[in-house]
Design brief:
Number of helices: 15
Largest sheet: 8 strands, antiparallel
Shape: globular
Structural class: alpha+beta
Length: about 375
């Protein structure tokens, strides 16, 4: 599980901290920094995989787009805390790093497992305490994290680090999920749905029979008259076909003509039944989905074994959260007077605490002018600064 992040100098994230629960929702005004948080998490995953240039190319970004415009600093500093492998000899893992965007790699990084530093990179030297404080000069060029680029056969013997690599490798970040991408045919999934959902057909095609049955069962909770299948086309392309069953007829629809909401629900459900998806990250989970169906989707998410992070603007979603859960699961993001992003528990803000005593979480959110809430937080920031 991802416990928390600290990041300094990534876009508007300056001296920024955020804690996570099993299910976490980010709320706030447009431009508050919610998308930057999702992008940072995906960026960290690319750093662990050594695919930073590819990550930039996929987003049509350049290295200069990574750094904050709020301060003059070259490196991006971050600290990620995980809770992994409890009962297997390790629990909390902390990955600290300094990422140099000119060199596109972590020039400094360290790993702590249960409070003990077990591996680090500093000034071109790699140290690890798994091999009696072994130290060696780094002679190879690398991108992203040096430690995570070591062979799995080596990392498998290092409890904590290998589990962290697996966690980051299996994350699914869908901040760019789009109808156009979801309608695309695909050849293979490589275990991922793709940045915008463009590998959905291959992901479903590659599922085991039992997982496809689970996906069918979940889909019927939303559309009782729908079944789906995948077809293998020429040159290895895969395509989804949807069948709608009516009293005296059935209607088959090819993937490129399936409606946006159905494809989006199918994509999210496909990830929720996967065995290896430790963290699923979504942008505005309610987009394109009928309000009547959003509640069912949230119930499935809350009952799933996966950790889920999503932005939302929907009071309907928050109304499905118990009050005690909402107090820790809903994080409010806003821009401080200096332009940097700050996160606070939405229902830890004094005015929101008062409302929550007589309203549900979604009702409180719908009843709140977020511009006025920002002013309340600005005053609170002044008091903290003395």
């Amino acid at each position: 599980m991802l416990n928390s992040i600290y990041v300094d100098n990534f876009k508007a994230l300056v001296d920024f901290e955020l804690r996570f629960e099993k299910t976490t929702f980010l709320v706030g005004l447009n431009g508050a920094g919610k998308s930057s948080v999702l992008q940072f998490i995906d960026f960290v995953s690319s750093v662990s995989k050594g695919k930073c240039h590819q990550w930039l190319d996929d987003r049509d970004w350049s290295p200069v787009d990574l750094n904050s415009k709020l301060k003059r600093k070259l490196n991006i500093e971050f600290e990620i805390r995980f809770e992994l492998g409890v009962g297997e000899g390790f629990g909390e893992v902390i990955w600290k790093a300094s990422f140099n965007r000119a060199k596109m790699r972590c020039t400094q990084e360290s790993f702590e497992v249960n409070g003990k530093t077990v591996a680090r990179v500093s000034d071109g030297i790699f140290y690890n305490s798994y091999e009696t404080n072994h130290a060696e000069k780094i002679k190879t060029e690398y991108e992203g994290s040096y430690v995570f680029q070591l062979k799995d056969s080596i990392l498998e013997n290092w409890p904590g680090i290998f589990a962290t690599k697996q966690f980051l490798r299996n994350m699914q970040v869908l901040d760019s999920l789009s109808p156009q991408s979801l309608r695309k045919k695909s050849r293979e999934s490589s275990g991922t749905i793709g940045l915008g959902g463009e590998r959905l057909s291959a992901l479903i095609h590659e599922m085991s029979e039992s997982d496809r049955e689970k996906l069918h069962d979940l889909t019927k909770k939303f559309y009782s008259n729908i079944t789906f299948k995948t077809k293998s086309l020429r040159s290895g392309w895969k395509e989804i076909w949807l069948t709608e069953l009516y009293q005296k007829s059935k209607l088959e629809t090819a993937q490129q003509h399936i409606n946006d909401g159905t494809l989006r629900i199918l994509a999210i459900l496909a990830l929720l039944i996967g065995e290896d998806n430790n963290l699923i990250v979504l942008d505005e989970i309610e987009n394109g989905i009928n309000p009547e169906l959003v509640g069912d989707l949230i119930k499935i998410i809350l009952n799933s074994k996966h950790q889920v992070l999503s932005t939302t603007h929907s009071p309907i979603i928050l109304n499905y959260l118990p009050d005690e859960s909402a107090k820790v699961s809903v994080q409010y993001l806003y821009r401080r007077k200096d332009g940097a992003v700050k996160s606070v528990p939405l229902f830890g803000i004094p005015s929101m605490i008062q409302k929550l005593r007589v309203m549900g979480p979604g009702e409180v959110f719908a009843d709140t002018d977020l511009r006025a809430l920002n002013l309340e937080l600005f005053e609170s920031d002044k008091d903290e600064q003395g």
